[in-house]
Amino acid sequence: MVLLRTTNYKPPTIYAQSLESGTTIEATVTEILEKKEIQLADRLQHYQKLELRVDSERDKGKLLVIENGNIPVVNQILYKKGDKVTVLAQKDPDGNDFYFITDFVRRDSLVLLTIVFVLITILIGKTSGIKSLLGMIFSFFMIFQFILPRILAGHDPLWTVTFASVFIIPPTFYLSHGFNRKTSISIVATFVSLLVASLMANYFIDTARLTGYASEEAGFLQAAKGGAVNIKGLLLAGIMIGALGILNDITISQASVVEQLKQTAGKIGFWDLYNRAMKVGQDHIASMVNTLVLVYAGASLPLLLLFINNPHPFSEVVNYEIIAEEIVKTLLSSSALVLAVPLTTLLACWSYLRQSKQSD
User: Fold this and answer.
1) What pTM was estimated for this model as a whole?
2) Between the chain's N and C termini, which has fewer beta carbons within 10 Å?
3) Keywords, A to Z (predicted)?
4) Cβ–Cβ under 8 Å, residues 26 and 55
């Protein structure tokens, strides 16, 4: 966040007195009125005087003059003409107006990226792509309309996610993959794997003495809700939601492998079918576990940089809760994925061979 003040400059049209304290508006940088380097806190820092045009409906078109870089900051952002930003109006103890540029307005880029994603999914996936998008929308609906409100209301996060998964898994799976035996097998395998993953997560979170307060967001949430949210349960619930997404992929893929092998092999024994399917599953495990590690590494890159730049020994650094929490998340998700492969294969082999016997 960059602190900006309206001082030493009074153009004919200035946006100052019409805002209430605490109001957030959107504006566009129309001019760079001044740009130079100034000495602050024993170092040089870039300074800008910006003219912004208000884009919000209230006082739309009025001008606002803001200084950027007139106080010491670490992560200074320099603005250019045409940048769209959000501005927070405040008053200092003397009643004078001052403003924060709190962030960039990113909606246009997000909308464009969403359109590109939807088009790619539909053009390549066709009907299956459309159905997968519907499943994704339903998952978002359940998360934002059921899971999050109940957790904020003080309900146990673990039981909330467990209950919600009963309503998320079948509709999203059937929407994406159709009403068939393969999908039903993957649903059962996902439920069982998720149960095993939750038991493992509960055990290792307890034994590792993880509190869930490794992130600043958890502390802010607890302060905002007056201690009503079970932060440790929230950590466990987050692991379950992450595992649910991973299990969706692995269970449907492995059930599909068994289905195709049974169709091409004709008469085949249970263990022969199982071993053939597991050879494919083992390749899937190898790639997916590596993918998970890379995904978590990418998401935690700043943390990893601090990790290798730490002067303390590895045995001490790995013991920090913020590090231990990421390790537990990665290993639990990977374990759930690995366990789901033989479980799904067993269920699929039993189901398809049973179907074959009944048809004979």
Assistant:
1) 0.75
2) C
3) Membrane, Transmembrane, Transmembrane helix
4) yes
